[in-house]
Amino acid sequence: EKQESMLELEDIHVYYGNIHALKGISLHVQRGEIVTLIGGNGAGKTTTLRTISGLIHPRMGTIKLEGKRIDMLPPHEVVARGIGHAPEGRRIFPRMSVKENLELGAYLRNDKDGIRADMERVFTLFPRLKERINQKAGTMSGGEQQMLAIARALMARPKVLLLDEPSMGLAPILVEQIFSIIKEINEQGTTILLVEQNALMALSVAHRGYVIETGKIVLADSAKALQENDMVRKSYLGEE
Ligand code: ATP
Q1: Is the Cβ atom of 41 under 6 angstroms away from ligand 1?
Q2: How far apart are CA 135 and CA 94, in angstroms?
Q3: How far is the CA of 159 from the centre of ligand 1 (A)?
Q4: CA dihedral sign of residues 234, 236, 237, 238
Q5: Which residue's C-alpha comes closest to atom 20 of ligand 1?
Q6: From CA 15, how far away is CA 57, in angstroms rounded?
Q7: Which of 61, 100, 110, 180 has its CA 20 to 30 A from that of 239?
Q8: Do residues 190 and 161 make contact, with C-beta atoms less than 8 angstroms apart?
Q9: Nearest alpha carbon to residue 148 among 196, 194, 104
Q10: Which family does the similarity line name (predicted)?
């Protein structure tokens, strides 16, 4: 019998008014995996993550976390069940300090010692944030804000971390850094669903991947097979 998925989407349909943005998305993430969802502009990557997080509700289809449906729940209950979301465009609270942003990430928890331990853990992952603990988040560089968005999502101690374009707008050296941290977070036990336009980097850290085009999954395979796939190489890896 097949192992129960950590996260499973089945035939998800999402509309924005009359726009049919997701046209029957099915995908699964096993416990311990990094799975990447790659695709071009407007393919439906962000919409998929927002639907998993409960920010948008699907018109049709089911989403299960450890076998239990979450697709009807409001966002705060989805967080409570164990989904952490580091959204695109960072969306940290710019006028609050790094520390306050991190504390907000843990707002559903009341285990003070656990929160303190997790704050130390994210500072180990992101030493820059510790150096800037009292700085207003909005005054930090793009890369630091991106790190803060991921760190804040980790403060909820999620079972599954959703990452939306963590490499967006970052200098190449920071892209390398962010991806190596993503790998480390996964090795410490967090299951990850990673949305990226940077297919090259995403496939280099992921175990498996899906390619999404205009709201549909068009390819699903191991990361290695996708790296070698002609269509992926032409469309997403910038090869002729
Ligand atoms: P990008 O990386 O450019 O954000 P994406 O793959 O994340 O692309 P989505 O943002 O999920 O794509 O968008 C999927 C489709 O839904 C697109 O056609 C987009 O124009 C449309 N869409 C997204 N958000 C809205 C919205 N709030 N209202 C109407 N249409 C939307």
Answers
A1: yes
A2: 10
A3: 26
A4: positive
A5: 42
A6: 9
A7: 180
A8: yes
A9: 104
A10: Belongs to the ABC transporter superfamily.
Strand partners, 10: 62
Q: The tokens 């800037």 sit on which residue?
A: 132
Tokens 């707008």 belong to residue? 169
How high is the pLDDT of residue 239?
64
DSSP string, 185-218: HHHTT-EEEEEES-HHHHHHH-SEEEEEETTEEE
Q: Is the CB of 51 under 6 A from ligand 1?
A: no
Q: Give dist(CA 176, CA 143) in Å, integer.
A: 11
Amino acid at residue number 48:
T
Ligand 1 atom nearest residue 164's Cα: 7
Distance (Å) from CA 44 to ligand 1 centroid: 6
Determine if ligand 1 sits within 6 Å of the CB of residue 54.
Answer: no
Complex confidence, ipTM: 0.93
For 75-130, write each residue's pLDDT tens digit: 999 999 999 999 876 778 999 999 999 999 888 888 889 899 999 999 999 999 99
Q: What is the CA radius of gyration of the chain?
A: 17
Where on the phi/psi map is residue 135: left (φ > 0), alpha (ψ -120 to 50), or beta? beta
**Ligand 1 test: best mutation among 37, 47, 56, most atoms within 8 Å of CB?**
47
Considering only CA atoms, which of 146, 95, 150 is closest in space to residue 122? 150
Q: How close is the Cα of 16 to the center of ligand 1, in Å? A: 9
